[in-house]
Protein 1
Amino acid sequence: MYILGISCYFHDASAALLKDGVIVAAAEEERFTRKKHDTSFPLNSIRYCLEHEGIKINDVKYVGFYEKPLIKFERILSQHVDNFPFSFKTFISSMPLWIKEKLTLTNKVHKTLGYRGDVLFIEHHLAHAASTFLVSPFEKSAILTVDGVGEWTTTAYGIGDKNKICLMKDIIFPHSLGLLYSTITAYLGFSVNNSEYKVMGLSPYGNMNKETNAYYPKLMKVIDLKEDGSYKLNMEYFVYDHADKMPSGKLCNLLDGPVRKSDEELTQRHKDIAAALQLIFEEALFKALNHIYKETACENIVIAGGSGLNSVANGKILTNTPFKKIWIQPNSSDGGTSIGVASFIYHSILGNPRNFVMKDAYLGPSFSDEEIKKFLDNNSIKYSEFKDNKELLKKTAKLIYENNVIGWFQGRMEWGPRALGSRSILSNPCALNMQEILNLKVKHREKFRPFAPVVCEDDASKYFECDTPIPAPTDFMLMVYPIKKQWRGKIPAVTHVDGSGRLQTIRRNQNPLYYNLIKEFGKLSKIPILINTSFNIRGEPIVCTPYDAYKCMMGTGIDCLVMGKYLIKREDNPGDFWDSEKYAND
Ligand SMILES: [Fe+2]
């Protein structure tokens, strides 16, 4: 039985295909349309899922949607009524899409896809909860979902047991920890629903001591945080409930200045505000989790919702709460809910036992060596061919060791926002200037952001102070841990200002080629760690096809592309045909 899950019209549209309880294909629309965080109906992702299995849309038994549009519409209407006349402008601009597409989704699915079966709608936080619990390794677990907002819910917790999910309590709009984070993201001049992770990355540059950070007590005025982790926001500081912006004038006064312009310098004040926000987020999260532990009496916790991507907080959960094991959906924000809705229909509605654990995130399209060769030949691209994997590993490791920047394009594309060794840019973390080279020549991103290290799981504890055994979310780059002091100076490009690293651990069975490359590099450098950053430039989605990869290399400072069994060097091919600088914004 096939079930297709769909998420769209808010951010990160995606589709996922379930076959008899197993996720066989999943991808986000942005990878195909090349429009970052594309929200549109995920036609390309659906096509990919069906083609991957060689089926037609009417072979699908059910199509599931990641929220209940009517309930969400009720919230939007009541929001506008409560705030009339201030909300009039936003109301008028948001209505056409609601009337044309969102409220008639069944029609849209039937007409666009030619589908004749049933379309089921699942509550948004249930879809988040299912996206993490039903594909986790736990038979029973406490569940926490935290995002901006679904229909009404912004935070929920409950319990998952075998194939059932029960959400016990929730916090509803406009009170939202996710929207608090997004509001400060907007205040600091970054883009909402995109750059929250930059605020997280900025926070260690600020004062992370709540006794002495002047903005901690100030920001605490906007949230009434209870001991059990429940909270209310003081809505005088926000306008997102009736306008298309987020911070109010009162919030700007509280934080001693206007909203930062995106090109304005980041001052110590901005950094301290980011630090205060991260401190409050962690405090709220740990309070909630400690309460959930008491209420559910479970030793396992699973997390989803956009806030699940806060890897700095995630890395501290097991030391700040009594939970023993943790699992987080790698595509924890709305993109991941297509997996949630499909799994919920199969297991929780239809009552089928669980038979799948998401051990890796390689669910996207792949390209055979023949397809890659055809692309290279058709475009007269110069390349050489590795005679086998042994040569590929040796030569690639040597190129990285010699400080070349490598575009690594292998196997099925990753699911979720992180590159995990299929569409990655790899380079040498031991080189002193590698962070600068990558930032200036390839990624065009802010200087304050370090790169992420990837290490084989069996080497991780030597270099990082991680929880043991190493929690599975570390495989998805979802846990930040301190780098052991003696190694920090040796891998400067991946060491954050506070000595931490957002590492990816890789187990041999997840991706043998990638695992072996890191080991091979370790033979040369004596440190088996690579820089792993997503194969894109700032403002672009991660590359999907050989064309995207070649285009990205030729428009940036990437030196070589290792694509399937082929090596393509930038210097062997005609000059830049794509001005990547132009796209370097978000
Ligand atoms: Fe969400």
Protein 2
Amino acid sequence: MEELVAEFAKLPGIGRKTAQRLTYFLLKQPREESARLARAVAALGERVRACSVCGDLTESDPCAICTDPRRDAGLICVVEEASDVAAIERAGEYRGRYHVLGGRLSPLDGVGPDRLNVATLLARLANGSAVREIIVATNPSVEGEATAHYVERTLRARSPEVAVTRLARGLPVGGELEYADGETIAQAFTARRQFPGA
Ligand SMILES: [Zn+2]
């Protein structure tokens, strides 16, 4: 029990008290319930991995979005984390594809450009690609903005024929895409803009 409480307490937003409540709750459930939870947790590590094309989390590689012929292959939306893909998909507005950077530039935490999945993004724009526009949808935070500008500069230097846009400012400054409602995300896509000086 102590071990499970300690594991729950490591999860984001879960303090020790909640971790204890969850553990007691599971104890009171039929055994099949906790077995199901254990299997789902184990399957996360075994079956879920990053898509080799876009970096989103998936059980099949390439992922369902990369292989869906109804999604516009000319549009790539660049996000920080896989959870941002889920948030944009919930909004239901966007019909292109994605690229997950796997983080944001943060010099204080030692996260430089080499730690982001930018090389794989450039590879997707190599000769003969159908991509016409890259929509940079990093978070409206200081690190998110710095990341957006880094991605924009890199893309412009390597693939000047591809348009690079940024989500509009409907998103709260300092907020996180993951927690924005669908309507706000949909509006930010519709009103996306050129980078200044582009
Ligand atoms: Zn993919």
